[in-house]
Design brief:
One of its GO terms (cellular component) is small ribosomal subunit. By secondary structure, this protein is an alpha+beta fold. The chain has five helices and five strands, in the order H-E-E-E-E-H-H-E-H-H. The relative contact order is 0.20.
Length: 137
Amino acid sequence: MKHYLNKYNKYNTGIGKRKKASATVFLVQGSGNLIINKIPGGLYFQNNPDYLFDLWEIFSALVFQPEIDIVVFVKGGGLAGQAEAIRLGLIRIICKKDKRWRPIFKGYGLLTRDARIKERKKYGLRKARKAPQYSKR
């Protein structure tokens, strides 16, 4: 990842997080591809339209030139959390590059990081909140 930070402008990077997933997104010169952890985007998300639609929806709205590649390094979490982390990182880059998009994305609630994460298990309980059955006598 340091290779991209040195080779490309830091201005073209965005970080997105969701649950346990953390994604670092780079906009680089290329041929209009989405590359996630050195794997093509469709292959990484197993061609699942639920995950890919969120990302391509942003591309189609912005009418990106085909000479821009999106390179992503993502770790942690599952595919759904990773897809949302990538989307947030990509939207943050777009808002950095062009301030006119900020109120539009803000209106749709796309700039807000979803802060819901898994609650930790407490001692004396079976799960985070599930307690053993209580017997009065």
